[in-house]
Amino acid sequence: MSETATPILEVRGLRSGYGGVTVLKGLDMDVGNEVFAVLGANGAGKTTLLATLARLIPLQGGTIRFRGNEVSGLPAFETAGRGVGYVPQEKGVFADLSVFENLCVGGMIGQRDRDERMAEVFGLFPDLAALRTQLAGTLSGGESRMLACGRALMQDPKLLLLDEPTAGLSPLYVDMFFEKVREIRATRGVSIILAEQNATKALAVADRVMVLSLGEAFLTEETGSLTTEKLKQGYRI
Ligand SMILES: Nc1ncnc2c1ncn2[C@@H]1O[C@H](COP(=O)(O)OP(=O)(O)O)[C@@H](O)[C@H]1O
Ligand SMILES: [Mg+2]
Q1: Per-residue pLDDT reduced to its tens digit, 155-197
Q2: Ligand 1, CB within 6 Å, residue ranges
């Protein structure tokens, strides 16, 4: 995280889960102006982490600071308003609204001219421009992922949370999406937390990586210094 002195996100002792179940058991992480990959086997807690950061799951303990302010108790719409864009693993779009209307929902947050922002999203995902009047519920898996990402980008986020954006997509879409992550990072300078199962592809775009294992950070490293051996240990394989 050498590029920035002050992290945009500081997480300390984060505990979170569902009802009486604790999934994240005291997680520490700092994210700066970078692509930060969160890897880990199925069930490791990646989705729980991102949903907690998006303030959709209450904390059981610890703190989350975003841009220097504590946001641990804020509701999701407040954190979105402060600059956290969230693309959930599933159901990131409003099925009964058109592509255009979905993007307008994202555009309700943020200051810049809505049409300008939408033109940028259509520039990034030209397929969406052609589908602008189509109902989101009728989109293919890949198109739906693009829309969910476009909707989050309409909010002009400072931090973008991407939860397995390529899960279940065809190989062509997978490569395209990782290329888009690179492009978003290069053109917007937004910090990105990318939860992924696909370690090889994620490591190719990430500056740093955290491997979650059984709800704890098994390791956090610069991607360049991560060895296959350590990665395997994190995945318990
Ligand atoms: N809504 C839920 N209620 C109870 N347990 C859940 C719920 N969602 C996920 N879990 C459990 O939390 C753990 C972490 O899941 P998750 O965060 O989805 O992992 P990942 O995204 O890394 O696959 C798993 O053991 C899973 O069964
Ligand atoms: Mg998940």
Answers
A1: 999 999 999 999 888 888 899 999 999 999 999 989 999 999 8
A2: 18, 21, 23, 40, 42-48
Residues, CB-to-ion distance under 5 Å, ligand 2: 46-47, 89
**b (16+ CB within 10 A) / e for 173-189:** bbebbbebbeebbeebe
| pTM of structure | 0.95
Domains along the chain with CATH numbers: 33-56+75-209+216-235 (3.40.50.300)
What is the tens place of the pLDDT at every residue in 83-109?
999 999 987 899 999 999 999 999 999
Q: Which amino acid is at 154?
A: M
CA of 125 to the centre of ligand 2 (A): 24
